[in-house]
């Protein structure tokens, strides 16, 4: 937040609490009365901190730092009573909240410390006031308003800085996760390529058909890897997908080829040839299928059946990717497609959220039903080039 915004906010709060020129004059008039007691007030402030390990622990520089902090607090109190509440004043108040986040001090301790300091200041006023009682009341009110305003700004700065830090660290974590997700997407085609290269380098007198077969495999998986990178970087840039008609069966088969099923998993693929072409970005949808297939296999560590079924529905088609695995408990079901959420010990928790985001950007949807112990079915809805008017039940 820039200083103009902060200052504007301070002025708004001044109006709110009824802060006036007269309040400033009344506070300034207490300087002489309070100054002789500053040392005692400040000592009490730090003695109390010393009694609270969670607050004390942020003071890492020992007695020397405490002495320095006492000087800082004295300066803060002097300014408080100075009668000048301009932009610089407010900026320094903001700086307190900001600094407290930096050192890892929880805001509750500032609130408690200010409460104690407030009581100390009021006691000094009451015990040493020699004037009119009504004046004392007005002065106490003015000082309370001022302390409330200071605390509001310190707290505001604290929240603002805290949220900004959290956002920064979440962004960093997200970058890490996305990088991991990309690595994951590329590892499978690279492994296929590696296997074929190994064969070509080491096979004794391979037949020319075999050589051609492996070279074609390499070529196909290089372009699949290339497609993954293009689709992911497009996804990161959030462009409109290039939606072109394509055959879903071919796309499914490519996704299955780059994600070979474990031997313990049986495939049942039901994809009628009569199905209209889907209207979406094939490179992006391949990532969706790959993620769903991998997710299904990971849900069946002991093996099982992966059923991929397509059907025509109103406005497009649906593709079910069903497993007979562990299933998802109802309490997690609404969260499994959230970014960075994973119930697996391994894995990044990005696959399903990428899948959903891609499908939605392609004008489709992704939903899941699951029965714990029986398995899960993820259903992708895609628009088709020539939608049929059927009715979904
Ligand atoms: C009424 C409550 C408080 C006020 C008005 C206050 C005021 C200040 C001020 C003016 C600064 C200097 C900010 C700057 O860098 O410009 C500061 C820093 C700091 N405060 Fe507070 N503070 C309060 C509560 C606390 C509490 C409860 C602790 C608990 C340990 C604490 C520990 C610190 C520390 C460690 C620093 C960093 C000082 C350094 O640079 O060594 N403060 N505070």
SS class: alpha+beta
CATH class of the largest domain: Mainly Alpha
Shape: elongated
Q: What name does the CATH topology of the largest domain carry?
A: Globin-like
Distance between the termini: 52 Å
What is the overall number of helices?
Answer: 14
Spell out the CATH superfamily of the largest domain: Globins
Main pleated sheet? 5 strands, mixed
Average pLDDT rating: 89
CATH level-two architecture of the largest domain: Orthogonal Bundle
Based on CA atoms alone, the radius of gyration comes out at: 33 Å
Distinct bound molecules: protoporphyrin IX containing FE
Uncertain regions spanning at least 5 consecutive residues: 344-349
How many independent structural domains? 3
Strand order of the largest sheet: 2-4-5-7-6
N-to-C SSE series? HHHHHHHHHHEHEEHEEHHEE
Attribute tags:
393 residues, alpha+beta, Globin-like, Helix Hairpins, Heat Shock Protein 90, two-stranded antiparallel ribbon, 62% helix, binds protoporphyrin IX containing FE
Protein described:
The protein folds into 3 domains: 169 residues, Globin-like; 58 residues, Signal transduction histidine kinase, dimerisation/phosphotransfer (DHp) domain (Helix Hairpins, Orthogonal Bundle); 140 residues, Histidine kinase-like ATPase, C-terminal domain (Heat Shock Protein 90), CATH 3.30.565. Helix content is 62%, strand content 11%. The protein contains 14 helices and 7 strands. The strands form 2 sheets. The chain has a 5-stranded mixed beta sheet with strand order 2-4-5-7-6. A two-stranded antiparallel sheet has the order 1-3. A hairpin with a 2-residue loop joins strand 4 and strand 5. Helix 7 packs across helix 9, helix 9 runs antiparallel to helix 10 and helix 10 packs across helix 12. The two termini are 52 Å apart. The site of protoporphyrin IX containing FE has 21 residues, from helix 6, helix 7 and helix 8.
């Amino acid at each position: 937040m820039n200083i103009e915004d902060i200052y504007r906010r301070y002025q708004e709060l001044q109006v709110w609490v009824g802060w006036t020129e007269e309040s400033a004059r009344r506070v300034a008039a207490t300087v002489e009365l309070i100054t002789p007691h500053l040392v005692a007030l400040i000592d009490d402030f730090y003695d109390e901190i010393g009694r609270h390990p969670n607050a004390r622990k942020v003071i890492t520089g020992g007695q020397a730092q405490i002495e320095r902090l006492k000087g800082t607090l004295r300066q803060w109190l002097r300014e408080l009573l100075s009668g000048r509440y301009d932009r610089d004043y407010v900026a320094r108040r903001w700086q307190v909240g900001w600094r407290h986040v930096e050192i890892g001090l929880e805001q509750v301790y500032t609130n408690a410390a200010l409460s104690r300091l407030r009581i100390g200041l009021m006691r000094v006023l009451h015990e040493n006031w020699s004037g009119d009682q009504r004046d004392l009341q007005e002065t106490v009110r003015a000082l309370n308003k001022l302390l409330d305003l200071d605390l509001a700004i310190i707290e505001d700065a604290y929240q603002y800085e805290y949220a900004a830090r959290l956002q920064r660290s979440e962004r960093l974590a997200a970058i890490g996760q996305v990088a991991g997700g990309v690595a994951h997407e590329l590892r499978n085609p690279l492994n296929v390529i590696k296997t074929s290269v190994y064969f070509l380098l080491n096979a004794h007198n391979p037949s020319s058909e075999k050589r051609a077969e492996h070279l074609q495999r390499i070529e196909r998986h290089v372009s699949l890897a290339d497609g993954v990178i293009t689709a992911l970087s497009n996804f990161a840039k959030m462009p409109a997908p290039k939606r072109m008609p394509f055959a879903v069966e071919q796309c499914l088969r490519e996704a299955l080829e780059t994600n070979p099923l474990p031997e313990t998993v049986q495939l049942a693929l039901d994809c009628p040839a009569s199905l209209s072409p889907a209207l979406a970005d094939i490179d992006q949808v391949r990532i969706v299928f790959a993620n769903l297939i991998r997710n299904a296999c990971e849900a069946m560590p002991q093996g099982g059946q992966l059923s991929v079924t397509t059907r025509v529905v109103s406005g497009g088609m649906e593709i079910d990717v069903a497993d007979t695995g562990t299933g998802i408990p109802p309490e997690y079901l609404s969260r499994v497609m959230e970014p960075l959420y994973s119930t697996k010990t391994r894995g990044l928790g990005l696959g399903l959220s990428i899948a959903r985001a891609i499908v939605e950007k392609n004008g489709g949807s992704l939903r899941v039903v699951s029965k714990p112990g029986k398995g899960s079915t993820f259903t992708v809805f895609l628009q088709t080039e020539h939608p049929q008017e059927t009715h979904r039940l």
